[in-house]
Amino acid sequence: MMLLLCAGGAAADTSAKAEAEARHELGRKVYNFRCYFCHGYSGNARTLAATYLSPPPRDFTTAKQLTEPAVLDALRHGRSGTAMQSFSAILDEAEMAAVAAFVLREFVRDQARNTAYHTRENGWPEHQRFAAAFPFATGAIALDADVESLSAGQRRGRALFLSSCISCHDRARVIDEGPAWSARPLSYPRMGFVPGQAPPSEVDAVSGASVYAQHEVAPRIAGLTRQQRRGERLFQANCAFCHGADGSGKNWIGQFMQPKARDLTQYTAQTLPAARLRQVIRDGLPGTSMPAWGAVLKPAEIEAIGAYVRRAMFRREGPP
After folding, report:
1. 165: which residues sit within 8 A by CB, 6+ positions away?
2. Which residues pair with 47 in a beta bridge?
3. N or C: fewer beta carbons within 10 Å in the chain?
4. Distance CA 252, CA 243 (A)
5. Is the pLDDT assigned to residue 188 strictly greater than 60?
6. What is the radius of gyration, based on Cα positions, of the chain?
7. Do domains 17-109 and 210-312 have the same CATH topology?
8. CA geometry: angle at 273 spanning 272 and 279, to 5°?
9. Angle 188-194-198 from CA coordinates, rounded to 5°
10. For the segment 134-184, what is each residue's pLDDT rounded down to a tens digit?
């Protein structure tokens, strides 16, 4: 009987550990897809996005007093007066709870380097093609190193990093932490908000961002097909972060990217055919921050996004 009890306890312990690990990996997957842009894939907020935000995103690696309930509350409700918006309309409770637990374990407690970001599941099926940029990502070579001192291969790697990696990646190491890397609070002043002071209650994360606010409003289109409605949900959940809810790319994130996020309202069915639009969504756009979604979205979902963009955002040629 004692042996049976011990065996049962061991099995339960193994099951609990497996469940906890599965939850941790779910948190990693969601974090890597939703949170890395501002907080960095290693949780230290050393991202290009962070240099544009005031107050900056939370550096989880130094937040010793941070608790799991506090992270969960921020995910549910956002943080007034900051760029942290609510994810309650995008993530379900299980996903938010998994992210909160992941952040506490991975970054606050274990101070771990989140090396599982560049995976096929996250849209990086062939990350090795960026190998020339790796020394700049790891800090082995400073980004502001004298270009003349770099080899031809290192110059190509630096150009690749600055054009394709830096908008989401840690900015790694620089020699001179001067004006080139100082904070650029693009969205302020917003409705009287003053950094360092308690924000007025009406300030929210994004929609109060002065001239950028109008581009966070999705177009109201009557008569969408079922496929187009599905595409609308997918676009607003996945694409609007960079392209703006209206597809113009003139929201604050889209405008600080280099090159800027594409203005989808400037295209027509002739200038960007349906097949080409699907290809760009699926494979990404080299030399820009447009990632490949083919490993994240199903073909039918990509098709739905394309159908919605063509209907809601493309300009129509000829008479209305």
Report:
1. 130, 133, 136, 137
2. 170
3. C
4. 10
5. no
6. 22
7. yes
8. 90
9. 130
10. 898 878 898 888 889 999 999 999 888 877 776 555 556 777 765 444 433
Contact (Cβ atoms closer than 8 angstroms) between residue 156 and residue 132 = yes
Distance, CA of 173 to CA of 149 (rounded, Å): 16
Of the candidates 183, 188, 212, 240, the one whose C-alpha atom is nearest the C-alpha of residue 81 is 188
CA distances from 73 to 67, 93, 261 (A): 10, 11, 30
DSSP string, 74-106: HHHH--TTSS----TTTS-HHHHHHHHHHHIII
CATH code of the domain made up of 17-109: 1.10.760.10
pLDDT at 196 over 60: no
Amino acid letter, residue 207: S
Q: How confident is the model at residue 222 (pLDDT cuts 50, 70, 90)?
A: very high
Average pLDDT, rounded, for the chain: 79
Beta carbons within 8 Å of 108's beta carbon, 6+ residues apart: 60, 61, 63, 64, 66
CA 39 vs CA 33, 58, 99, 217: distances in Å:
11, 7, 13, 25
Which of 272, 52, 61, 154 minimizes the C-alpha distance to 262? Answer: 272
Burial of 49 (C-beta count, 10 Å sphere; 0-12/13-18/19+): buried
What ranges do the domains of the chain cover? 17-109, 126-181, 210-312
Q: What is the CATH number of domain 210-312?
A: 1.10.760.10
Cα distance between residue 220 and residue 265, in whole Å:
14
How confident is the model at residue 122, as a pLDDT? Answer: 58
**Phi, psi (rounded to 5 degrees) for 251:** -75, 175
Bridge partners, residue 170, by sequence: 47
Residue 48 near residue 137, CB atoms below 8 Å: no
